[in-house]
């Protein structure tokens, strides 16, 4: 006999898990939601998206206060009170996770604090805080256990003074010299926070460019700014050796030409990717299968190879983004409730919350090139945007990737302040099958950065109002 019988057991209460649990309950199912934290939220709320965005907001304020001087307002040098900064950040996290706890209660979801492992394809063993063990039986389970930081080669993450992203977001102190290893989302976002707080940041990236896979013209906008913010950006560079010393680490770096150099840092952040979290889940007691990279295999309904078990979010494949997890979670809940549903988005937006932000959705230009897809592209440089000028932030670019025959919008890329908010229009355009003329004819408010999307659409025919380009037919590429 199980201690708890439930129709749906959701393992992991991040944006994938709590979204699945909430919708399953809304659709009339009896739900148990299991997570080690006292409230739902997962890595996104406790150690990822939310604390990092709270800190990035403060970083933006610091950087704004510096540039305000050029516009006639001098705030002086900001004094940073780390304790108060951390208290504020923790308050934001507590408010949101507490709110999710309330929402779970209102829906009569049974929230079980602990970790669960499958004992069969219909039962789970739950280890609760304090060591007690409960057995759960379920009709359907949703695995939403997320991902964990990938260790540096050679286990260097275990070395003193080397932080992962969760530790870095604690901001216990601001090192004078920080090494960031990895020029992806986390390295760039957290590197930006520490640089604004006063660290001299060196970033090393193994490949030849930041944010591998993202269109280079968008990355270039960010890179130009980071060259001023960071002490050094070392591309094509890896860490060869690390040794702790009294107050820091000695690090041997190898550059693109094979040349080695030894440098000393107070601390290092390892941000070289994340991997799906499946160990200790007892998957060997189920029919759930994994792919070569360790992601759980799912179909469009989010169903694993074990028909009563679903998987959503980071554990079920890339991109490892909270909003993708939420939509997958909702798909799984609908299917479990007997509805016809599938996760088949035309566009999943991605946002790097740096300064400036980079955001894209749908087909990127580099993907179109590598897959041999015919496309036309229109770029609108923010130097021609009135709103960007009033913000003192003309460093931006909006681009549309369109089908050259129908002019249907296939992809949107934006680099510039607020790109993360602007990209939602791109997602809607792609999902609704909009073409460039539709966007050009939709009146965008003036003066706003959203006009850059409208003008990029007009620019496809060389007829943007604020940007002169000789008239031309969209070029087939
Ligand atoms: P990432 O995959 O974005 O970037 C890792 C980077 O490290 C890559 O550029 C890679 O080339 C580089 N790298 C790998 N090994 C290296 C080595 N030995 N030395 C130097 N560089 C090395 O991974 P991440 O930044 O750790 O983030 C993990 C995931 O978390 C992301 O893929 C993303 O899906 C998610 N995330 C999203 C957001 C957001 O939505 N804004 C923010 C943070 C994290």
What class would the helix/strand composition place it in? alpha/beta
**Ligands present:** nicotinamide-adenine-dinucleotide
Strand content: 25-35%
Largest sheet: number of strands, sense, barrel closure: 5 strands, mixed, barrel
What multimeric state do the chains show?
single chain
Determine the CATH superfamily of the largest domain: FAD/NAD(P)-binding domain
- The CATH topology of the largest domain comes to FAD/NAD(P)-binding domain
Report the uncertain regions.
none
**Fraction in helix:** 25-40%
Mean pLDDT: 96
Classified by CATH, the class of the largest domain is: Alpha Beta
Count of individual beta strands: 21
The 3D shape can be described as: globular
* Cα end-to-end separation: 64 Å
Work out the radius of gyration. Answer: 24 Å
Strand line-up in the sheet with most strands: 1-2-3-4-5
Q: Write down the domain tally.
A: 3
Question: What's the total helix number?
Answer: 13
CATH architecture of the largest domain: 3-Layer(bba) Sandwich
Could you characterize what this model shows?
The protein is an alpha/beta fold. Helices cover 31% and strands 25% of the residues. It folds into 3 domains: 4-148 and 275-336, FAD/NAD(P)-binding domain (3-Layer(bba) Sandwich); 153-272, FAD/NAD(P)-binding domain (3-Layer(bba) Sandwich), CATH 3.50.50.60; 350-459, FAD/NAD-linked reductase, C-terminal dimerisation domain (Enolase-like, domain 1, 2-Layer Sandwich). The protein has 13 helices and 21 strands. A 5-stranded mixed barrel has the order 1-2-3-4-5. It has a 5-stranded parallel beta sheet with strand order 7-14-8-9-10. α3 (49-67) packs across α6 (185-197). The chain binds nicotinamide-adenine-dinucleotide. Nicotinamide-adenine-dinucleotide binds at residues 153, 181-187, 189, 204-207, 212, 238-239, 271-274, 319-321, 351-353. Nicotinamide-adenine-dinucleotide is lined by residues 153, 181-187, 189, 204-207, 212, 238-239, 271-274, 319-321, 351-353.
